[in-house]
Design goal:
Helix content: 25-40%
Distance between the termini: 55 Å
Number of strands: 14
Strand content: 15-25%
Oligomer: single chain
Largest sheet: 5 strands, antiparallel
Radius of gyration: 20 Å
Shape: globular
Order of helices and strands: EHEHEEEHHHHHHEEEEEEEEEHHH
Structural class: alpha+beta
Number of domains: 3
Number of helices: 11
Length: 301
């Protein structure tokens, strides 16, 4: 690992100044600065020489980046430094956003989940990132701070390529906001890996469907690890919107989702296999959501 300068700011303004290369008393950042959250990806890349930042900025002591909360009118707030373990264990997430809790529980090992953060998983922008598909399916928004103020970006527009986001070099992800679930809404995240645990996704599929009087009034289907960025399968969404979630529509949506995927061949799987698994997982996800809606209807919820 190459030498680097290190700083642990106590405020958001300090951190943004350091990212912008502004000197502070007793410290003069030199070279490319990178923010350090959980470090589960960044430090590995530094050890292997894939990244060599001149300055490492530990953002863990900044209060604004912490905290997980839920409000019935405003929905879910996930501070950028909320850990994957906190997401998985949160009663509010498990009750109102079970697909997100599912995704968190499928990630890596206990040790990694205790360190890895929501912000790190998203800002690392790996095509296989587990939290991205369900958060996009749930209409999550990224709240971003920089030297020129704050802005909000829909998470489906947050990723620009493998390892790339819309964040400028002097900006930080502050938090992710997820709106409260609509009445009749249900969602799921399914992931295919060679092993049951501790593997990154070969394919991930998140689906969120809202039912009204037995019909699918709206749907989002988001694919992970089969394109340069998380991908909305919009043709598949249209195939099930406005009608019953019956077998014919589900089969057609699964086929369309596979057609929309843009997988590659790599050491973990072939493009052909990934495309086949998109169809399988999309079909399973929609069948599971249809069964869930039937159960909810039978209980009057």
């Amino acid at each position: 690992m190459k030498p680097f300068d290190y700083y642990a700011p106590l405020s958001l303004d300090e951190a943004l100044g350091l990212l912008a290369g502004q000197p502070v008393p007793g410290f003069n950042p030199v070279g490319c600065a990178r923010a350090l959250a959980g470090g589960t990806d960044l430090l590995l890349k530094m050890r292997t020489g894939r990244l060599a930042p001149g300055c490492l900025i530990n953002i863990k002591r900044i209060p604004e980046l912490h905290g997980l909360s839920y409000d019935e009118s405003r929905g879910l707030r996930l501070g950028a430094l909320v850990t994957v373990s906190e997401v998985m264990a949160s009663p509010d997430v498990r009750a109102h956003y079970p697909a997100l809790a599912q995704a968190a529980a499928m990630m890596a090992s206990v040790q990694i989940r205790n360190l890895a953060t929501v912000g790190g998983n998203l800002c690392n922008a790996a095509p296989s990132a587990d939290l991205a598909p369900p958060l996009i399916a749930l209409s999550g928004q990224a709240h971003i701070a920089g030297p020129h103020g704050r802005r909000t970006v829909a998470l489906e527009d947050f990723f620009s390529g493998p390892g790339q986001t819309v964040l400028a070099s002097d900006e930080l992800l502050l938090e992710v906001r997820v709106p409260p679930p609509e009445h009749g809404a249900t969602a799921i995240y399914l992931k295919h890996t060679p092993r049951e645990a501790m593997d990154i996704a070969i394919v991930g599929v998140a689906a969120a469907v809202t039912f009204s009087y037995g019909l699918c009034s709206s749907a989002k289907i988001v694919l992970g690890a089969v394109a340069p960025t998380p991908l909305r399968a919009q043709s598949a969404e249209r195939a099930i919107g406005g009608g019953p979630l019956d077998e014919r529509r589900i089969m057609e949506a699964a086929r369309l989702a596979a057609d929309e995927a843009r997988p590659i061949d790599d050491v973990r799987a072939s493009a052909w296999y990934r495309r086949e698994m998109v169809e399988v997982l999309t079909r399973r996800a929609l069948l599971a959501l249809d069964r869930a809606s039937t159960r909810l209807a039978s209980t009057g919820n």
